[in-house]
Amino acid sequence: MADEAKKRSVPWREVLLYLLTAVTAAVFPVFFLYGRNAAEVSPGTALRCLWPFVLEAVAVYLLMLLLTRSAPHSGMAACAVIWILNDYRPIEDVMRGWFPGLRYWHILFLCCLVAGHIVWGIVRCCKKDAAKTIASVLALVTGGLCVMNVGMAIPGIAAYLELADTKKESALSSDRADTDLPNFYYIIFDEYGGYDAVQKYYGYDGSGDAAFFRDLGFQVSMSSYAGTKGTVIETANLFNLDYVVTLEDPDFATIADQKRWNAPFFRLLQEKGYSINGVGQTAVAEYGLPAVYETEADEAATMEGESFWDLLLGNTVAYPWLDRQDAYSDYRAEVQKSLDHFKDELDHTARGRFYLLHVNCPHMPFVFDQDGGALDAGDSANWIDRGIYLGQYRYMTKEMKQIAQSIVRSEPDCIIVFQSDHGFRGGAQLYDIPDGYSCNILNNVYFGGEPLDIEGKTSINTLRTVLNELFGMDLDMITPPEGMFQK
User: Fold this and answer.
1) What are the residues whose beta carbons fall under 8 Å from the beta carbon of 93, sequence distance 6 or more?
2) Which of 121, 147, 163, 386 has its CA 20 to 30 A from that of 235?
3) Which residues of the chain have pLDDT under 50?
4) Domain 174-471: which CATH number of 2.60.120.40, 3.90.1150.10, 3.30.420.10, 3.40.720.10
5) Which pLDDT score, from 0 to 100, does residue 291 have?
6) Which residue, 367, 192, 174, 360, is CA-closest to 273?
7) How far apart are the C-alpha atoms of 246 and 243, rounded to whole Å?
């Protein structure tokens, strides 16, 4: 009996050894994704995302150990089950391509059947010595791939940490303002298409909106254009008042991100006596401006608003529990709060204050309808239905009008700049819209109700024109370098 019990017992050193096979298989997606996004995601975020996958590996491995009573067989079986669990979404997409009527629970049941047969086949057909060899090879291969991805991430980690240090050392402070200066309000509406382009490709006539702003004393350019369709390049060049980054620069995105931080435009305003203030996450986290109110920590996200964790979980069997609706509700609230600040929270008795808001609308994710109501999370990246983008565009227009009206009535001598970094580009890819129209931007300027020549000017030249009038400077109008879009 003692010999039989000894034979059936599991050596714990072997258990721990082959647990490594399951763990390396489970954590590989984290290393793979981080290796390609290390310059944009903090190492701490990646490490926090590792633990759920480690726990998954332990749970699956222990279940396999309970079923097989063999550590090497458990390592092999756990690998197979983990691969199915962590790559469930692509498997589902393939199966739905073959059989469109299948739903999540149908495919999950089929995957469970397949996994069960794989486990049975491993136990039935693979001898222990062979299982040891295969499990060890799997651990070495997946572990080696994890190490390789860490190596690929090193330049990105260095760039991320260098940028973090730069931001920490050179952040602007909000000094006391020169009360002889008018308040200066600058709002960038990301991916807000210019009037010409939106009318031509979305069928929306913005002439009534343009007339509204003109009646308030704004100068409205119908034909202003950006140099590219890239946010970081456009805003880096804009706030450096020159074309300091182009698409031809190696690693242009990292360079542009560094150039935006504490850029010359902000320093110039501060030197001239302006108190600098950032409204919302982007102005604080990406431009280095002092915050007028606390915001949640800014986390890197895709254009659809997905975080690093969202991308990982969205590929797994757990994707239906990824509650994007709640995430988008928080996002909507943050956007609305930043816009409401300009309608409800400004001190119109103060002077010499500069405020910047870069609001990520009407850019994806699409979360507002034309009346400000919530959209379904499934429409967050829906460019097919042109009404989705247009609804968010029209709501941003309504907000822009309310902000302009509120500020101008209280401060008729102020300066307001409403611009976009680029026009609509998601729709441009779908509908084969020329670059000229997807670079057509919003460009409305209020300069104390006085005339200002901005028609057809780029955002950079518009800003140079404003500075010339405001401070009596003599900045020349500049042309985008060759290789950047020009109308």
Assistant:
1) none
2) 386
3) 1-2, 297-298, 486-487
4) 3.40.720.10
5) 80
6) 174
7) 7
